Amino acid sequence: MTYRRSGPRDRTARQRDRVRSTTAHVTGLALMFISVGMLLSAVVEYVDGTSGTALLLATVVTAVLGTMLWRSTRPGVLDHATIFTAVGTTWLVASAFGALPYLFAGTFAVAGRPWAVVLADALFESISGYSCTGSTVFGGHNLIGDQGSGVLLYRQLTQWAGGMGIVVLVVTVLPSLRASGLGLIDAEAPGMGVDRLAPRVRDTATRFWKLYAGLTALIAVGLLAAGMGPFDAIAHSLTTASTGGFSTRDASIGHWDSLGVELVLVVAMVLGAANFTLHWRSLSLKRVVHFRDHEFRGYLAILGLGTLLVTGMLTMDGMGIGRALRMAVFNVVTLGTSSGFGNATGAESSGDFVRWAAGPQMILLFLMVFGGCTGSTAGGVKVMRLRVGMADAYRTLRAFRRPRALYPVWQGARTVPEAIVARIAGFMVVYGMLVVVGTMVVTALGTDLVTAVGGVIGALGNMGPALGEVGPTDSFVDGFSTPARMVLAVLMLVGRLEIFPMLLMLVAPYRSLRGAGRGGRS
Amino acid sequence: MIRTVLAGLRPTTVPGLRWSSRVTAGALALVAAAGMFSVLATASGLADLLGNGDDTVLLVTLGGLAGLASSIGFTRIRSAQRIRDADVLGGVTLCLLILIVMVGALHLLIGTTGSFVDALADATAGLTTTALGVLSPDAGDHAGRFLRAGSQWIGGFGGLMVAVAILPFFGAEREFADRSRLGGRRPLAPNRRTAVRNIVYLHGVVSVGTWVGFTLAGLGAFDALMVAMATVSTGGMVDGDPFASPAVQYVAIIGMAVTGTSLVVLWRLVVGRSRGLLRSVELRVYLGLLVSGTALFLLWTGGSGPDGIRRAAFTVTAAVTTTGFPSAPSGTWAAAAPVLLLGLVSIGPMTGSTGGGFQIMRHRALLQIALREMVRQLHPRVVSRVRLGGRVVAESTLSQIVVVQFLVVSVVFATATVVAAMGLDLATALGVAVHAISTGGPVRALDGALLDPTDWSAPVRLAILPAMVIGRLSIYPVMVAASSTVSVVRHRVRLRRRIRAYRGRTR
């Protein structure tokens, strides 16, 4: 029997036999990545002394399917339609497989609940995790505190993976994507585009992940120093760096009722919602460059003004100035950074912002719309877009005074190209339409106006808690019907991917089908 | 009217005596406001003769004096060589503000109310055609009732003038005006003067037609006139409950629907250019909104039968056209029903009608922008034009529409925040802000119950007035006036330079 070693030519031939599909290839690798998180959680569950079989089973299923997809495909053409399809599909599939641990562990299988609702809740929790939203269906008869540490860690890990982006993670290990990987990162990353941190796309992605991991470790140390236990500190660092907002406690941060913990989190959330490029530049130049950035300064100004207004209003409502300032700082930052932690110590406590007067709630709603900076893990419209939108409005009004004058839109010392201004205008139009249509649909499914508006803006901005019946420590089961929760879940994914990838993900398959139907090239 | 006044001005032959553009526009605004006040006060005084006539002398005297002052003022104005667009828009805003103060003062003088805030709030609600009035004159107070109805009528007329005869000629959404004479057509607004004439003609015809309709439906002549003026202006402020009779409701539905239709459509019907009218997407969307809104409202309020359909059509038409005639809820409303009405109010009727809201044409433009943005995501270098009504819309117009959306949302947020801080709950604050900027009404609670603006505090009532004015003037005039004022103040104050000089001195 002759044995022939496989050479480069054979490998190339084997690769050629694989199906060409960028979407399937990226999705397969993403599934393998998320299975690592599941495995880690299973190990923690075993170490903790409880059975981690459900998590292990989910790991195996996800890893096997991921490997099969990855091994049987190879990257193909990477045009814009394919990029949107790849990113959209990856997030959709990852969120669907992310629900497996909850399903296998029977987390939401409360007696008397139909299986469709259990499936919907598992999907909702998974999507809320990966999209870094932080809305939860835990609560009531199904408390977070009753879950094993493995499931809890898994919840936190979903947000951590989603924070920087699953596709960014894929790009770090997928050399075959080469420069086209930037398109993938761009389609996934929040903001108006990705600044290259290195000449190679793969290096850029790696640096983003290193920075992210470093920030997470720093937050964990800070939380440990502030008095949290090791598990909680690590778990919360994962969801703070990602501005996700999941907690391991039913009362969220209110469980600790500690000023130190809140202060560490406030600083960490602000850092998480700032542009990561600024962090990298500060590290590489060994000096803080954040305050030179106009967007960051505007972002701090918004948070500062919000805090001032909310503190004033709470004080006028009878809260002590110290307490009001603490509540205002934490809640303004947590919603202004799209994190969504809560510091309410109970349903009627002063940190429960849905019990506040309407004035401060309106300011929180405004903050929920705008979110953090571009190039960060935060959701929302982003401060840069707000600034450009305001500048565009101002120059349009000026043009009435001097119709022949040309007014460029300035950001600091640089003008914003008209194409970018138009792109931002288009984004804001689509965003506004989604809010209006989403609110109409959710109210048609039985939710009241305030809860619906808060829920839709919160979902689209990846915020977490909403207003009305769904406050910082409330379960979304109480405020929304199952179909309404599914609508919100879709909006979470749409918001996480900055709208277009999810809306355009069906373009490439549609083209393929149409091409096949006509007998053309697929 | 502005155009007529402008056309009547003759520039002085002595160049040194010419006024600046800003001063001329301000003086014209004052003169125009006095003129309109004169007509309103005199007509109210004469209407009071139908009752006890105790206010007639005062009103006619004031009207006469205002008319005299207006005439004298008009002849004394020294026209600028050229009045700048921004100053015209600022003048329009100033005119409305002066008129609001004058009408408010008149309410105080004739004793409709003794509260300055109520007088100002009601005058603003009337002149901005927002059905959030706070006064309820006695049935016998003919002067007070006519003053409210007349304010609405003038407000509706002014809204039309701004939308059709002023803004398109100053660069705002000019494609939406019916200006082309191609193919021997008779457009509504070929130039400003003809536009004003045609608007007066059409508005008058619709007003008289609605008056006759209400009279035939069983209302007394004076009551019918009051309701007709509230209908054609999309003001919606009526006294008592004139809509108890189904016949009156039917007339109101038709009247509101006609008023919410673009003047261009009505003009085409009048001049016999009705062929292919239903091909207008905007008209179809408008009619579709009325029909589908009624169907959804029926579904969500559990209405049925001819009475239920009529009531639903009345409520929905009042919302879409931003008229805001009150209708108490019957049965149990689903959570979506008041939200539907709020959505319809914010959408508004056709562009070029007396109604407020964002209006259908602008919504269509936004939708096209959204679709184009999606195409651009796939093909970043594609050159794509937005077409509305078969015509390519200029990029500057699209940009203006996006800016209007941005400003509307900003005003809604700001107003809602302010009134929420003053004590309204979140749902009411949002509802009040949307209704104020859309010049619609009335505001409803989450269960559909009508909210009475008199229950709100005086600061709340004052806080919503700017939104009403901004909404009535289609955003731009107020914003341009505000930014011009800020610019002038900044220029005069020169704060930065003074601070620098002060620092220099202290060193």
Note down, in words, how this protein is organized.
The complex is a heterodimer of chains A (522) and B (507). By secondary structure, chain A is mostly helical. Chain A contains 23 helices and four strands. In chain A, the strands form two sheets. Chain A has a two-stranded parallel sheet. A two-stranded antiparallel ribbon of chain A has the order 3-4. In chain A, a hairpin with a 2-residue loop joins β3 and β4. Chain A starts with 7 loop residues before the first helix and ends in a 5-residue tail after the last helix. The mean pLDDT of chain A is 88. Helix content of chain B is 65%, strand content 1%. Chain B has 20 helices and two strands. Chain B has a two-stranded antiparallel ribbon. In chain B, α15 (395-421) packs across α16 (426-438). The relative contact order of chain B is 0.10. The mean pLDDT of chain B is 89. Classes of the chains: A mainly alpha (522), B mainly alpha (507). The interface between A and B is large, with 52 and 58 residues.
